[in-house]
Amino acid sequence: MKKNSLSLLILSFFLGMLLIIEFKTVDKTTGGLVSSQKANQLAIELKSLRDRKEALAKELKCLEDRIDEYKDSEAKKSVIVKNLKNDMKKYEILAGYTDVKGPGVLIKLEEAKGSQDRNILLYNYDNLLRIINKLKAAGAEAISINNERIVSNTEIFLLGEKLMVNGDPIFPPFEIKCIGNPDTLEATLNLRFGVIWQLRTDWDLDITIQKKENIEIPRYSKKVKFKYAKPVDNKM
């Protein structure tokens, strides 16, 4: 009986040891599986974060490219606007719609002192047109007569005892202002047998020509209305 009890005790001891060893083995195995699952999960999350980072980087690059495009577009618009403003100023000067200043010549015409004919300049106002044409041919950029700006549609005609320019009356003595190269303008006017020479010789007029570093010419104050002329549409 004692022998059987001892055998049973020994057998129970070994069974207990086997159970303990198996439990530890299972525990270790389970722990390894958990660690592997965590590693896989972390790897998946890391890949997801990397993919998200790459996607955000691409999106950021697209936004930066769009910003650069906007900047280029704004810069181009700025250049276009600047060029348009410069063109507008140039056309305003050519059309006479802005005050201008610059170097040029100042011409004064009046009857000689003691002259019996006080209306020689009025009745021969076509000589003023000849002077204006000579100035234009010499590169004049702006011209005025008694502060009346000469533009493409300026009308000059005699009305009674007054000369009408741009619809306003002017009277002698006449003062012509011209902006351009002073030397060229003066040389053109002082040509022998030219218009100024003829006026001095044939009409005994008192004419002075002065080169000026700065001349101011007022703008054309009238509004131009087109009743018949219309722009041509060049679209195909």
Automatic annotation (TrEMBL):
Annotated keywords: Coiled coil
Coiled coil stretches, renumbered: 39-73
InterPro entries according to UniProt: DUF881 (IPR010273)
Pfam family, one: DUF881
Superkingdom of source: Bacteria
Similarity comment: Belongs to the UPF0749 family.
Descriptive protein name: Uncharacterized conserved protein YlxW, UPF0749 family
Organism: Tepidibacter thalassicus DSM 15285
Taxonomic lineage: Bacteria, Bacillati, Bacillota, Clostridia, Peptostreptococcales
